[in-house]
Write a structure and sequence with these properties.
- The chain is an alpha+beta fold.
- It contains 8 helices and 16 strands.
- The protein has helices spanning about 5-15, 20-40, 160-175, 245-270, 280-290, 315-325, 360-370, 385-404; strands spanning about 45-65, 80, 85, 95-105, 110-125, 130-150, 155-160, 180-195, 200-215, 220, 225-240, 295-300, 310-315, 330-335, 340-345, 350.
- The strands form 3 sheets. It has a 6-stranded antiparallel sheet. Strands 1, 2, 4, 7 and 11 form a 5-stranded antiparallel sheet that branches. It has a 5-stranded mixed sheet with strand order 12-14-15-16-13.
- Strand 8 and strand 9 form a beta hairpin.
- It is rod-shaped, with a radius of gyration of 53 Å.
Length: about 400
Amino acid sequence: MRDTPRWVRLRALLDESLMALVVVALVIALAGGYLTMGAYGETETRTEEHQTTVWESSGAFTHNAAVVNDTAVYDEGDRLHNRSTYFRDLTPRLDGAFVYTYTARDGGNLTSSATTRLVFRSVEDVEDGAATEYWRLDSPLANRTATLSSGDRLRVPFSVNVSAAEQRLDEVDAQFGGTPGTKELYLETELTLSGTRNGEPVDRTRTYQLPITPTDSVYEVGADGPVVHSGNQSEQVTEPVQPGPLRSYGGPLLLVVGLAAALCCVGGRYTGMLSVSDTEREWLAYRSARNEFDDWISTVRIPETEVPDSTVEVESLEDLVDIAIDTDGRVLEVTDRDAFFLFGENRTYVYTPPSPDEPLSLGDRSVADDALDDTTQSVETNPPASNDQHSASDSAASSADQSE
């Protein structure tokens, strides 16, 4: 099978740029090797500063209320737990406890003392955020003291008759003639901590509150959830850096592609697959000239009788165009004869282009290139002229020169 003109052009381009292509392929392979070594060779690490929780404490109120009368919904003795709203007549007494616990990474022992009291007060807020307290009354409910290790819990129970507490709030405020402030009722637990935690000394007092707000038929209980405190410590953490997709997959791919391309280029040159013969180069030069001088060429059909027997052979299409320019002539491409003619006043010039079918197939190229100087390949479309024909052409050319 003969090579196609497009494949001849491609091989010529590859042959001219072979060294540059090999260099580019090796650079790609080196880049792929570098990325591959970075991804699968020595593992990179990075050091970051992390905030680590070394201790954490939680203080919260839990509460419930017992139903004192049967209803269509609840039976007497039922308990409602941790609701935001209870019923004044149905569940007048609020029971519960304050619960404190803590955890420490390196352990500790804390002496914890907690006092829970019921607070009555009248207070008025002002514009700057401060508050004016008109009066305050504390009623102690319970007190507990315990030594806590990490994970232990301190529980301080309480029980409040909300209806009676509301009545007491109004009575005290009436003793002051009715203050202009807001009357408040809430549970307050004061917690004192002393000892060591994570090997560090601790001496601290915290206050926790649970508001109780009576209305017409219900009373509302604060539901802010547990109050959490914690201590953090900065630590230097060294972590491995995971390679990204480009280094993990792109590196090996570039390495394989680069090496394969370099081997193909070198192998193509060694086996002759990318070699371009002189005949092929001549044909490429002809095609380039045909495109370049298209404005000087016309395509025609000439009857066999109009073609003179004596013609002057021109070695290239470029030479034929140069003669046409000098003589103000026109190059004629005779398609049915696969030749280019220039008719002058005294002689006819002709150029016969090489055939694109003359290059050998890939399988025959390595042999043909070695024997190109000694062997003439037979081509059906353009058979070589006989010695007699060459002699006739030379004689015709000589006669034409003498006539001038």
